[in-house]
Structure formats: C-alpha cells, structure tokens
Amino acid sequence: MAPWGYLTTLVWGVLAFVLAQVAGALVLYWWYGSNLQDLLELLRSRPYDGVALVLGTFATNFVEVAVLAGFAALKRWNPAEYLGLVPWRTADLKLALSALAIFLLAGDAALYLAGQDLVPPFQIKAYETARESGWLPVLAIATIIVAPAGEELFFRGFLFRGWVRSSRYAWIGIVVISIIFATLHFQYDLFGRFQVLAIGLLLGWLRYRSGSTALTILCHGLFNLESSLETIIKVHWFP
Asked: Which range marks the domain in which residue 64 is found?
C-alpha cells in the first residue's frame, strides 16, 4: 500500500511533534510540583538541567513514536514496517560502521581546526547537573538509546517513508529531512548545526541504501555514545 502523501506526512509529523512537546511539558510540570513559576525559573536558570532533559526526552520520544505508529496503522500498514524497523544486511552494517568512523574522525578534526570546542557547553551542563542529582545512568540511557530511537523513527522513519518515494528524487527528500533535523536541534550553535546536518545526510543515505531505520538508530546511538565519552573526558580530565 502507498504511504501517506507528502502534505499529509507533514501534517501528521507536525501534529506528532506538537503532542510530544505538550507531553514533555506536562511531565515536567508534574515532576516539579505542579508549580509553573518554579518550573519556569528552573528552565531560565538551568536551561540544560540533566534531570529535566531526561524527563523531557523520555516523555516526548515515547509519545511521538506512539502517535506515529498510530498514523501508520491508520494507513493499514504494519507500524514497524512503515517506520523502517526491519533487519539490516551484514554488508550494510559494515559500510555504516566504516562511514560513521570516518565521519567522527573528520568531524572532530574539523572542529579542532576551526577552533571549536569538541564538546558543546550544553552537554557539559547536562552532565554536571545530572551527576549532582545522581541521574547519570538515566541520562546515558536517554542520550544513547531513547533520543536516537525517537529521532530516527521520526525523521528516517515516518518522514522518510512519506517523502522519499523514488530513487530519482531520493536525495531531495533526504536533504529536506536533514535540514529539518538540523534546524530542530536548537541547543547547538551554527557550526554545531552544520555538523548535525552532515550526520543527518549520512543517516539518510544509510536509510536509503539499507532500507532499515534500525541501522540508523544504531549509528545515531553510537554517534551519541562517542559524544558522551568526549563529555566525560572533558569534565573529568580537561575541565
């Protein structure tokens, strides 16, 4: 069966994103004693608080994926198949890991040569505040597993299914999706968003080549793992 159309995919995607943000806001409101003033003060004084980041990540991604799965089922697709959750081939895995390794080395080299910090300030703040609260293990799960899974199922899953329909115009869809992916990463500066755009293009290509969002989830998780290890090294050995 055909997937949702271009415009319908956009509408459903925006709706899923908005519902997820509302869910995240409600969870934070409940967690911080249903006191809006206290919550706003926390977000103002500690915009990258580790505990708030964890709670928001879990809530938004679970709701978003559930809504997207519902839209896929509404189209009478198997949700897992619609979102690209299919096994990868061994050859694609080898290619993906090799490409990711090259990308990580090239990305760090570019940051170093440009005089940019390898670790963005928001990652350090999130790590330190989570450590103060004893939430580091949960932050790791949110960063390395939950966020990559949610983002890939949204961008390389739902949007990809609706917008990448033929090999002739595949790169147009991949580029558009990658631009949206980079734009929504508000926590990065301009240089960081270009890096996010680049990893989005790589993940889009891997999704197109392999047909598997499971593979892009793995690569995205490994990318975040490497970034998390750099954060640990920065905080503990090069403060």
From this structure: 6-237
